Amino acid sequence: MLPFHLNVLPIKALYTSIEARLVDPTKTAAVLCTMDDIRSEKLYGIRFVHLPFADVVDEMHPNAFSLKHAQTIARFLNDLDGVVDLYFCCDSGESRSTALMAACYKHFYSDAKVIWGNVHYHPNPLVYRLQCEALGTT
Questions:
Q1: Which pLDDT tens digits describe the chain residue by residue (138 residues)?
Q2: Looking at residue 53, what DSSP letter applies?
Q3: Order of strands across the sheet with 5-10?
Q4: Contacts 24+ apart (CB under 8 A), 54-58
Q5: DSSP code of 49?
Q6: pTM confidence score
Q7: Phi, psi for 48 (deg, rounded to 5)
Q8: CA-to-CA distance for 128 and 97, rounded, in angstroms?
Q9: Range list of β-strands (E), 40-115
């Protein structure tokens, strides 16, 4: 069983949900993967980690997701006591964030078909592979 409910949203939709008070900041955390600057004041105290990396699949790209990014996320996930909702957010909520969520499903449920089988999601394979590696999931 997952220790928290997993959600995927574009970063702007998370901001909107927070402003509309649809999110309880005391029970929410977010993994933000965008090259844009993050305005922490718009997160109203939500615990978050921001990892600026591009939506590319070439490991040699200077802004590609790396094992170091994945290890940072794995440590963040291990420190989420009291969190009920975990959000994965990128610019569109389709590629980087869904790859991270798929890796979590694979880690906690041994199955990520719910993500890979969704036609609205296009998980970034590099992000997925490295995050699975950092979580110790094969």
A1: 567 889 999 999 999 999 899 999 899 999 999 888 887 777 888 999 999 999 999 999 999 999 999 999 999 998 888 899 999 999 999 999 999 999 999 998 888 998 999 999 999 999 999 999 999 987
A2: -
A3: 5-10, 85-90, 28-32, 47-50
A4: 55/90, 55/91, 55/95, 55/96, 55/124, 56/124, 56/126, 57/124, 57/125, 57/126, 58/126
A5: E
A6: 0.91
A7: -150, 160
A8: 9
A9: 47-50, 85-90
